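Appendix B, Record 12. Input sequence as logged:
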Amino acid sequence: MLRARRIVVKVGSSSLTTATGGLDADRVDALVDVLARVRERGTEEEPVEIVLVSSGAIAAGLAPLGLERRPTDLARQQAAASVGQGLLVARYTASFARYGLRVGQVLLTADDASRRAHYRNAYRTLEQLLAMHAVPIVNENDTVATAEIRFGDNDRLAALVAHLVRADLLVLLSDVDGLYDGDPSKPGTSRIAEVHGPQDLAGVEIGSAGKAGVGTGGMVTKVEAARIATGAGIPVVLTAARHAADALAGRDTGTIFHRTGRRAADRLLWLEHASSPRGAVTLDAGAVAAVVERRTSLLPAGVTGVEGDFAAGDPVDLLDENGNIVARGLVNFDARELPRLLGRSTRDLARELGPAYEREVVHRDDLVVLTG
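Logged structural output:
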């Protein structure tokens, strides 16, 4: 852990706000104090870089708008985020300025993750901010995200950002000091210090959201985020925000999730974990074998059915003949275009409809297999 040079730190709403929903300046400053000291451990030759994924925009906007609790409807959530995001970044800007550090705001939706150009732009922005010694503050773009293009929680966003920036470590800060083998409020439960794989979690009761009621996550989302990150080769530390300094110094705190896999192709990880399918296409047995076993592109000849109302570039699920999801990919045709292409070769389609139709339904570079 001590050798980590690029670290993504995620902090939840409950660790930044008061019980009434406003930002707690002392909590923000305490977190920034820790992060700034970690930055100071680096040298010019080997700088330590921090990317902060911060919840709290909606929670910060509650009190100024006279809302007593987090709204359940999307429109008022977006309004609260619009007010709260400015307050959140202003607070971080002032707090990091005490150490002569600049911050840069990066707001993302799941749509930005799966579309090639958007993904490249997000990567370039984060890399440039780090190169200029700024601290990127990443959050979901709640003001514009619809239900279909939301990450849903910042734990998963943090895991994907850690992969995007090729982080050495992901630290998830919460109001709970680690993963327990039961309800931590009940006697007889103990903290799980290390997780080497799914087998270490067999039989573990994983709780939901915390007491504060201002966030969307919980232990379930943190364990899922750890699974995503460790599967892509990034170790994860889960602990309470008050133990952030210990976690970032490599001391024994919280729960350490060890790597279980290697780094995956960039956008495919996002396609698998961040995209919401807008429809589905059904494949015949031959196409399923080609896509799943040989990892080829999906051609019109192998498609037997179309569901949903999607546009070219949208994520869609690929189904076998029994309706099971076998893959997900970015489709090259609108839903209304596909029915007349089904079962036909690209050569015939190009001859009849023009060269624009001599292409895959889903290219293999835009496809992730979800089975096998």
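Confidence is low (pLDDT under 50) at residues 209-217.
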